[in-house]
Amino acid sequence: MTHTVPWTDGSWSNRPVAVATDADGLHVTAREGSDAWRLTSYGFVHSSEHALLTAFEPESAVEVRFRLDFAEQFDQAGIFVRVGDESWVKAGVEVSDGEESLGAVVTRGSSDWSLSPVPGWAGRLVTVRGSWSGNALTVRARVDDEPWRLVRVAPLMADGPVTAGPYCCAPSRSGLTVHFTSWRTTPPDDHLHPGG
Question: Which PANTHER family match (predicted)?
């Protein structure tokens, strides 16, 4: 069963500079320097992301849609799935070295980052979906109503509560405002591969 999650249902992991809602959705202005990362390559730990989180149940999916309107290095938005301080996944679109790229950071103690350029997505609506089934989180994304793309399959096992929802970060600048247009929960994906 698909359920629209009210913006008021979530709690912020870190409060943004500004939050506003209107008929078109949620507008979030990120703090300069906000980010989520642990150790790998850079050596630092950042846990200042702006993630609006609510309970995420096994055998379900979380889906977030936002307008891709980024301009600076490392501007990013998508979904955040939190198991604990050292175990989480963020997935979505990020500006890296001058181009928008679709990717994920999977963190279990240390972070692991993957990216793939998505030319032609700028200015359009991007949907990112995290489906928790069995012991895995399967992340897919699409632009407008184009076919889903597989982004990542990562282990997701938890002894306690898991939370998930929309997130954004602005590691290198002030003034990033992300326009989220929807937040939904749905049944999980039936199969890892089409026709499976």
Answer: REGULATION OF ENOLASE PROTEIN 1
3-state secondary structure at position 9: helix
Question: HSE on the CB side for 10, CA within 13 Å?
Answer: 29
Domain, as residue range, for 155: 3-184
- The structure tokens listed for 162 are 């898991």
Residue 196's pLDDT band, with cuts at 50, 70 and 90, is low
Helix (H) or strand (E) holding 93: strand 87-96
Contact indicator for 1, 141 with CB cutoff of 8 Å: no
Closest CA to 105 of 13, 32, 35, 185: 35
195 part of a folded domain: no
Domain count, the chain: 1
**What SS3 state is found at 7?**
helix
